[in-house]
């Protein structure tokens, strides 16, 4: 098992666009409403290439390897990266409560524990203004939530 790290910073409006965040699924039928057909087309073309966080954390593994921000063999190393990500964005977090250094350290520590048993981590924070920051750590080879998902690094 190894761990891939993902990070995204973007407009909340893009984060809210579900077709970017969901794999296409079954194709619509000829009698499907036009909005369903359009959502499917959007998902087919955009989901595989966008770095907008997927709805399910394991689905990061369906994205291109170029989106991976780091790969680690040990949970502790991945947790350190997560801690750096959180610390880097702490001054921009929407509330003082979220900016608390102890809280951020505990999130990173809990992430290491979860990764140790093969769980995934997905955190998201609103930043001041209209931005959203997402960071994820995804176990790979295998992933417990998506054991059939191949590793994006071949």
Written account of the structure:
This protein has 154 residues and is an alpha+beta fold. It has 6 helices and 4 strands. A 4-stranded antiparallel sheet has the order 2-1-4-3. A hairpin with a 4-residue loop joins strand 3 (121-126) and strand 4. Helix 4 (75-89) packs antiparallel against helix 6 (101-116). 22% of the residues are buried.
Which descriptors would you attach to this protein?
single chain, 154 residues, alpha+beta, four-stranded antiparallel beta sheet
Outline the fold blueprint:
Layout (H helix, E strand, L loop, with lengths): L1 E10 H4 L2 H4 L12 H13 L23 E3 L2 H15 L6 H4 L1 H16 L4 E6 L4 E10 L14
Antiparallel strand pairs: 1-2, 1-4, 3-4
Short description:
The chain is α+β, with helices and mostly antiparallel strands.
Shape: globular
How far do the termini sit from each other?
A: 14 Å
The residue fraction in helices comes out at 25-40%
Report strand %: 15-25%
Helix count equals 6
Structural class: alpha+beta
Query: How many strands?
Result: 4
Radius of gyration: 17 Å
């Amino acid at each position: 098992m190894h761990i891939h790290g993902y990070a995204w910073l973007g407009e909340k409006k893009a984060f809210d666009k579900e077709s970017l965040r969901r794999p296409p699924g079954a194709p619509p039928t000829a009698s499907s409403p036009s909005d369903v057909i359009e959502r499917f087309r959007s998902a087919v073309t955009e989901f595989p290439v966008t770095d907008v966080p997927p709805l399910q954390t394991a689905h990061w593994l369906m994205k291109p390897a170029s989106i991976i921000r780091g790969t680690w063999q040990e949970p502790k190393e991945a947790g350190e990266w997560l801690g750096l990500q959180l610390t880097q964005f702490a001054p921009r977090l929407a509330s003082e409560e979220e900016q608390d250094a102890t809280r951020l350290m505990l999130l990173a520590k809990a992430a290491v524990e979860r990764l140790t048993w093969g769980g995934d981590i997905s955190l998201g924070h609103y930043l001041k203004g209209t931005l959203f920051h997402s960071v994820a750590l995804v176990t790979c080879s295998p992933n417990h939530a998506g054991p059939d998902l191949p590793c994006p690094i071949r």
